[in-house]
Design goal:
Elements lengths: L2 H5 L17 H4 L8 H15 L4 E3 L1 H10 L4 E6 L7 H16 L3 E6 L1 H6 L7 H18 L8 E5 H7 L1 H13 L3 H5 L15 H16 L4 E2 L6 H13 L7 E4 L28 H10 L11 H14 L2 E3 L9 E3 L2 H9 L5 H25 L1 H12 L5
Helix pairs in contact: 3-4, 5-14, 7-16, 7-17, 8-9, 9-11, 11-12, 13-16, 14-16, 16-17
Length: 391
């Protein structure tokens, strides 16, 4: 492994907060000497939008040059259909996908039905898993993911792998052959598992398949959550092994925490930890009212994170309505401005929560309407709600 790759090894996850960047190729010292003026200008324009998605990017110079040179880079994201969709998977993914397509990327969303079966989701019942997959697509349509121009493609892993088996399985086998078992075990986080869990043989094979997906889908950018980072780094290491020059770029987005204190990630098995995309207005209000939101404390405050990663990217502002006695109405146009008031105690948790509930409900109302008025969507939701979530 090169010195550069050692620095970004999955053994030492990043801890430094991503700083805002002035998007200028020369200032960032990207190797752009081979670019024309037109390519450089295009790279700067697209990079600003795409880079805003990621908490971490490996590597930024590679991303810049890809966006400068390639007309339609391919970005890949994948998900297991494993139960109802929460707002991190629904709203955040829609925001990120729309940014990618606005920047000229083609987005391939891998509906990992076989992977969910390998990971024992929905009790390993493939029909149930595929029903959940169709339900998830309905939500993205309703919430506003831009699907009209064909820049977003939903691909079912079972169908694609079966149709191109001669291409897929030799790739999986080669990845498996080139890696020791401990290296693969370190990737188990991608399945919501740990190295100490008792794993089925299928779950050992899973990381090799997910690594193969990146090359099978011809992805230029791996746009997944920070929890998928290890297998994406494995893909870059595989490129070193096979002497492949163009490595997949890793653009990892932030993982939204659960609503209760100390919940680093939303949990589908704990309804109180997350807001589901079809939750009724009253349910959203109750969940936010009960959410952890200590006065004047920013660190580990899930309500503030919801505003930072969902409300501000969606509305580009956060409006608080309150009495004159409590400071009067105020609109925040940046997260920094909001945090400054909150830390000083000038914005009370009760006022923040009331405004947050209102903003979330405005985002979710079209989804509720869709599942209320569309017979097919209503049936999917009823069936998914009836399934027992298995781990």
């Amino acid at each position: 492994m090169s010195t550069e790759e050692q620095k970004i090894s999955d053994e030492t996850p990043p801890t430094q907060e991503v700083q805002s960047l002035t998007i200028n190729a020369q200032a960032l010292r990207f190797p752009t000497l081979s670019l024309t003026d037109e390519e450089r200008e295009r790279g700067e324009r697209r990079y600003a939008l795409v880079r805003s998605i990621g908490e971490e990017c490996i590597q930024e110079d590679e991303l810049f040059n890809l966006l400068a040179k390639k007309d339609q880079p391919i970005s890949y994201d994948g998900f297991e259909p494993s139960g109802r969709m929460h707002i991190a998977q629904g709203v955040m993914k829609a925001v990120n996908v729309n940014k990618l397509t606005d920047a000229g990327c083609k987005v391939k969303i891998w509906i990992a039905d076989w992977f969910a079966q390998l990971n024992n989701k929905m009790g390993g019942d493939l029909k149930k898993i595929q029903t959940v997959g169709r339900y998830l697509i309905e939500i993205w349509k309703a919430v506003g993911m831009k699907l009209e121009d064909g820049k977003v493609e939903f691909l079912w892993s079972s169908e694609e792998i079966n149709s191109r088996a001669a291409e897929y399985w030799p790739l999986v086998m080669d990845i498996a052959r080139r890696n020791k078992l401990p290296r693969i075990m370190r990737c188990c986080q991608i399945m919501g598992r740990s190295e100490t869990d008792e794993l089925a043989a299928s779950q050992i094979f899973y990381p090799c398949m997910q690594c193969a997906d990146i090359f099978f889908l011809k992805a230029d950018i791996c746009q997944l959550g920070m929890d998928q980072r290890k297998v994406n780094v494995l893909a870059r290491e595989y490129c070193d092994d096979i002497k492949r020059k163009n490595k997949p770029i890793i653009l990892s987005h932030h993982m939204l925490p659960g609503l209760q204190q100390g919940q680093e990630k939303m949990s589908k098995s704990d309804p109180s930890s997350s807001i589901y995309m079809e939750d009724e207005e009253a349910e959203v209000n109750v969940k936010i009212k009960k959410a952890y939101c200590p006065p004047m404390i920013v660190e580990g405050n899930p309500c503030l994170e919801y505003i930072k990663y969902i409300i501000l990217p969606w509305f580009h502002e956060f409006s608080v309505e309150r009495s004159v006695k409590n400071g009067g109405d105020k609109t925040y146009n940046s997260y920094e401005e909001l945090v400054a008031d909150y830390e000083k105690g000038e914005l009370h948790p009760a006022d923040l929560k009331h405004a947050l509930s209102g903003a979330l409900n405005r985002i979710l109302q079209p989804v509720r309407d869709h599942f209320s008025h569309d017979a097919g969507a209503k049936d999917l939701l009823k069936r998914v709600k009836g399934y027992r979530v298995t781990r």
